[in-house]
Amino acid sequence: MTISLRKGVSLFDKVSGPWGRAAVIAVPTVFLLLVFLLPFLVIFKISVSAMEAVYFTDVFTWADDALTIKIRLGNYLLLAQDSLYLETYLSSLGFAALTTAICLFIAYPFAYFMARSPADQRAALLMMVMLPFWTSFLLRVYAWKMLLANNGIVNNIAIAAGLITEPIPMMNTSFSLVLGMVYTYVPFMILPLYANLVKMDLRLLEAAMNLGATPWQSFWRITVPLSKSGIIAGSMLVFIPCVGEFVIPELLGGPQTLMIGRVLWDEFFSNNDWPMAASVAVVMVLMIIVPFAFFNKHQAESST
Amino acid sequence: MRHSLKPSAGQITARLWMGAVFLFLYLPILTLVVLSFNGSPTVTSWGGWSLRWYQELSQDTEIISGLLLSLEIAFLTACASVVLGTLAALSLHRFKRFPGRTLFAGMVSSPLVMPEVIIGLSLLLMLVSMQRWFGFPERGLATIWLGHTLLGMAYATVVVQSRLQELNPQLEEAAQNLGCRPLQVFFLVTMPLIFQAIGSAWLLTFTLSLDDVVLASFLSGPGSTTLPITIFSRARLGLSPSVNAVATLTVAVVSVGVLLASVLMARGQRRRAMEMAAAYRGEQA
After folding, report:
1. Chain A residues closer than 8 Å to B246 by CB
2. How far is CA B106 from the centre of its chain?
3. Nearest CA among A267, A95, A91 for reference residue A185
4. ipTM (interface pTM)
5. pLDDT tens per residue, range A89-147
6. Which residues of chain A have a CB within 8 Å of the CB of B176?
7. CATH topology of domain A73-302
8. Fold of the domain spanning B64-243
9. pLDDT in tens, B75-124
10. DSSP string, B240-274
11. Is B100 close to A2, i.e. CB distance below 8 A?
């Protein structure tokens, strides 16, 4: 509701003046260009170089008045040829998709009930969803280790209760990995869904009811389509970071649960092969670029 | 009347569903707290109540020095993130058109979802290249701070921006019409109105930084081992009871902190609402 003085120029432009405006934009822009964008160009460059002792070779060299550009595609060829890399990429996408689907299944009814609960309870409920978020993520993931281990709490209780005689192996499996990721990311699904559902105009549902729709029909044909942007935002907030997740697979996953974040970590920290780690990262970026563009477009729309 | 007192099937489903989700969210935290008082040296079998892990913790120099470093980084991160995040939120909220706005908006929100291993690796490789050309920076506190600030700024922007969207622009316009200069408008009108959001953003980025293990592992140097790096390396090896004690202490500090902050904020909000009501009354008289 800004009063436009001229077309496209809000009163705030006048208030801040051209210099103030430039300064406000310039500071975060310079920071982001240097700390976010430039590093991307750097890893792209390093991914086509080779590791040499403790440092990587230069892509561009200048000697005898000649600029030599040496682009080494060995890392990318290896990624394409070694089937283990391909399998790992696919399995990361699979685990991320499964996690997103389960999060949506848990979070949608939750957010819906939260949005429809009495207005004076909503703030407290929201607080209760946020509170675990404030305590260390690392420690909460670690806690699942204690719950799920063979001699862990869940197995101990089940054995004591006589439900099972032998502990069920749950740790270091796909189950524990997905459980850990769902646990960590479910609030990221709840919050955008809630923010969307709470703003919905309930008169639309009344109108549908008056026109003879059953509650089920009005849910699927009105509530769900209207909450589309919340579903997209939540799904992207869960899916994209899950693809490259490292800590959860490392603590809760096993040798069978292939995740690309772990491969990148090992290439860097164990094999000390920085160009290879960079190539793994570049391919990962290419893999998530479509959902990523989707997310950014969505964010940009919600910020205007 | 009797009909309305009895919860419907829908309400029962709602309560069960919400209860189950809350149980899921809080079960691990409860486990950590209870087991931190476990006297038995095997983490998951109960050996009576005891404070032995807290005693051991007080002598654990690795954890204490890690905590001090983490707190220092978290404090610096929160301050820098809030300043940069507020500027970014103002840019996005106020200036609907400027060259590169799409790129800017994309860069601001990307760290929210970008896998941390990618941010950590790319930032580290850039810093290493920089170090080779210019001789700085050494890996350590400053480099971890830089990485955390990138992440924190993205979160701070979201928090501040959502508050800016709720504001009534007429308040700032009124101040301007009454002769305030741009900086005065910001510090006398906008700032008090978004102060609460800036406070939450500060706390959020502080905890984010205190919690991060991936960026810190990439960006730390020799001698700059943060608390999460220590905890993570112990948790990787297996179950460690001292980790439970750390967890319980964090839970206690966070609960008190969040409770205190929300009480203070609620009080501030009430006072502001009263002042505004008084101002409106004065206008009418």
Report:
1. 139
2. 21
3. A95
4. 0.86
5. 999 999 999 999 999 999 999 999 999 888 888 888 988 888 887 778 888 898 898 89
6. 11, 15
7. MetI-like fold (1.10.3720)
8. MetI-like fold (1.10.3720)
9. 999 999 999 999 999 998 888 888 888 888 888 888 988 999 999 999 99
10. -HHHHHHHHHHHHHHHHHHHHHHHHHHHHHHHHHH
11. no
